[in-house]
Amino acid sequence: MEQYFIIDFDSTFTQVEALDELARISLKNHPDREGIYKKIEDLTNASMEGKLSFTQSLEARVKLLEANRDHLKQLISHLKKKVSTSFSRNTIFFKNHQDEVLIVSGGFKEFITPVVTEYHIKKENIYANTFEFDAEGNIIGYDRSNPLSQEGGKVKLLKELQLPGDIYGIGDGYSDFQLKESGMIKKFFAFTENIERKSVTERADHITPSFDEFLYLNKLPRAISYPKNRIKCLTVGNIDEDASAQMAKEGYNIRHRESIEEKYLEEAGVLFCDEENQPNPEQIINAGRLKVIGIFGKCNRKLADAATESGIIIFDDPKHNPHNNDFIPRRVMGFMNEGKTHTSCNFPDLQPPRVNNAHRLIHIHKNVPGILAKINEVFARHNINIVGEFLVTNAQIGYVITDVNTGYDTQVLNELKAIEHTIRFRLLY
């Protein structure tokens, strides 16, 4: 059976509400601009939470804009920089599912189309309102015959389209939930990467903090193998809020404790700690999910040895660099996203380039002869083409990154994990 994916635009595909942003452009010299901004934001929220009809909200907001075509050009440039992080990294999904992805929005084609078509979304699959202009290019209204300008517009549109298959909806607002309420879609996913509306999340089939999570739940191809919102980042001790904020923005599930507590460490995939609150070797051995440690200070030698033996990478900043609140998160994200180990204090140095249209596999093993040959023998037996391969070693471990063509049996992963002397194995993307 065919599948279709109905995706909202404002606060879903993009991080912002476009009409709110347009107001900030068109009214920037207006003497009462702050008051008008507030009115428009209140109207947006009231509609998105189901407290005001969409028709009333849209009409009132457009009247307040005082915008023209030049303002729209500025808005488009701004919105292209505000695509939601988890959408922008999953371009490959949109490329491979061009016929099944529909953008359905109460926004306007004039600014939606230039943004989403850069992600392989077809113009004919973009459903939104259209502005009306006067001879000078000023916005004077919109096409009121368009069902998307009306209350329950998304439901009306889907009734007209009569899509033959299972339909999945993803969005942040009440109009998106109405699709589920109508019984026309199989599942509704409340998207909370940018904003979380309780009136919507409490009625959703699933809450999805990122587009990665949506793709993961539906077993669809994605840029990363495991959604970051499912990975806990434990911060311990005196960790600057800026460092935690960077990880939260990347999508990690942040937890903070004043000192190491084993039950939290055992759940963590990432650990940030200060110099005074480093875990001991025994705690590291029991931290089965831990992949990377960022230490704001100097790493002690016993921890480094224990972490290496367990296949856990460490980035530290022994010079107490004033920029380490940015340095440590960037290094941790470089490892988690692409397998980069540069500046690690316990892993061999590797900075592989990202390869598109390929899967990246990380294999960490004891530094003994013959492991690379065994890895490649698995690939050869399953007729898997290797796009690129990198091996670096130190006295304790070997670190292999292999980029392979997409498409293979999951049995391959099990065989790679089972190679003798393997410490850790991970599918990166």
UniProtKB/TrEMBL annotation:
Protein name: phosphoserine phosphatase
Domain ACT: 360-429
One GO process term, biological-process aspect: L-serine biosynthetic process
GO cellular component, one term: cytoplasm
Chain coiled-coil ranges: 55-82
SUPFAM superfamilies (UniProt xref): ACT-like (SSF55021), Formate/glycerate dehydrogenase catalytic domain-like (SSF52283), HAD-like (SSF56784)
Known EC number: 3.1.3.3
